[in-house]
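To: structure subgroup
Subject: Chain for Friday's discussion

All,

I'm putting the inputs and outputs inline so they're searchable in the archive.
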Amino acid sequence: MKFFKFIVFILLITACYNKQEQKNNFMNYSDEILERAQEIHNRVLVLDTHVDINVANFTNDNNYTEDLGNQVNLPTMEAGGLDVAWFIVYTSQGELTAEGYNNAYRNAIGKFEAIHRLTEEIAPDKIGLAVNSNEARELHRSGKKVAMIGVENAYPLGLDISRVKEFYDRGARYMSLSHNGHSQFCDSNTGELDSLWVDNGVSDLGKLVIEQMNKLGMMIDVSHPSKQSIKDMISLSKAPVIASHSSARALCNHSRNLDDEQLELIKSNGGVVQTVAFSSYINIEKHEAYTGAVSKIIQTLAQEREFKIISRSEIRKLEASERKSYLKNYKTLSKEASSLLTKTDPKPVDVSDYVDHIDYLVEKIGLDHVGISSDFDGGGGVYGWSDASETLNITAELLKRGYTEDEIGQLWSGNLLRVLEDVEAISRELQDSNNG
């Protein structure tokens, strides 16, 4: 099982090396659609709410000014017309102990510092950090790419609620209270696996965090918490919430997706669901059939070539040059494996499957409450949108299905930035009432 999961991950990495080949295989749009899509794409603010990072890619010698083989960097953003990337301060869930909290805090600070290093030291002429919608739009008008910051898993706060403000001051404008595993703040969606819950929703400490986030103007992200936790968050929050990277459970029955009841709650709350291009959350049957077929061929070829496939954690430990060499060699192996698939083999989850979820969400809760996210460099990506360089394909598919330019602009950024502005306005009201 661990090997299979790793193969799924490595396939996503390798997809980044096959951009042109994938485009030629996938692109079936007319010249007219492509031309119109490009014009719209150039005019709207194209924003992705969830892009993971690795601090090893934020050094003077190894950074986002070059295509590192990952899914999002400045060259791929430029190639695909991705204007705004929300870089994620992600921390995996660990033990609820002083040592666990301290380790998580150090991890989070390292990622905050990496994002600031990119925008302030490494490439300030190419990308800037925005903390509100006006700054994002101003940076875009100046010709720069835009970085914004989200926190995935509030676990690094430990038991110190004052760290909410510290994270806000470092640039965080949304935060989820849990990830895969129950945190000190709320239960996670992963409780569905064993029906074991800790707080049956949001804990007392979590209620204090929600209060602080409302006061500061930080959006509450409900993408990973349990269903009861999400209900509690919406009930407790005085401001709209977001799901930074989730899709429709009615189309794909995964605990990370949102069911119709949750969708209606988010709509009533005034929030937004950022539809995620994570293939196993889009069509799990299709995803498993395809990755299973490819992984079998890769295993066979690897044994024949005496190529040792190493784990994700081992790849991360490699020096930059060794990591690049390993991924290059794996690319060659993967391309050969893909070429051995026949036309009757399972097909990968693609952009059309992904936009099916956008269509469903728009029909269910209305255009004003739907957005777009990738979860790139964190497992996300579908055939046709395997990295930021292929972002135009989403606009083309939306245009093909009849969405107008204004509607496409709402989906790409308008709805998410509207929620951010609403959260900021409520924050000012709360602060004024406390001062009055």
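Points worth raising on Friday:
Residues 2-435 form a domain with the TIM Barrel fold (CATH 3.20.20.140).
Residues 1-8, 13-26 have pLDDT under 50 and may be disordered.

D.
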